[in-house]
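A.,

Following up on our hallway conversation. Structure tokens first:
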């Protein structure tokens, strides 16, 4: 049988080490720790944080570094799996047409969004 005070001890370890800001996702087990942190006026628990990720898309057409290819292939599936809405503008016109709306959506939903910069837009990294 687990000691019911385990969550207070976890919270105490975090606070004792000077950690005062926490980002979290909904989770039943972790919520027991968060109850102690929410009650502490010196701690700030943050979830659903709006952030704009700007990601250089490597490993695609014209890539010279083979180490970049796996991550380039995984970028879109990872963003999709995390539920992060993204755009991949291939021109300045597409960036201008989609960028503002994407950022507004991120702040309206209080969730991250991503602008993935493909080589068609940036010209890529020249080897």
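Then the amino acids I'd put at each of the 127 positions:
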């Amino acid at each position: 049988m687990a000691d019911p005070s385990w969550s207070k001890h976890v919270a105490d370890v975090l606070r004792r080490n000077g950690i005062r800001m926490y980002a979290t996702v909904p989770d039943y087990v972790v919520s027991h720790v968060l109850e102690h942190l929410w009650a502490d006026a010196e701690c700030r628990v943050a979830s659903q944080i709006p952030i704009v990720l700007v990601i250089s898309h490597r490993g695609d057409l014209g890539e010279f570094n083979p180490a970049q290819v796996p991550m380039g292939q995984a970028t879109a599936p990872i963003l999709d799996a995390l539920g992060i809405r993204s755009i991949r503008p291939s021109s300045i016109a597409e960036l201008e047409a989609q960028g503002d709306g994407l950022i507004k959506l991120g702040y309206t939903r209080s969730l991250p969004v991503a602008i993935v910069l493909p080589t068609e837009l940036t010209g890529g990294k020249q080897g």
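Strands lie at 21-24, 44-47, 52-56, 85-87, 113-117. Curious whether your intuition agrees with the design.

B.
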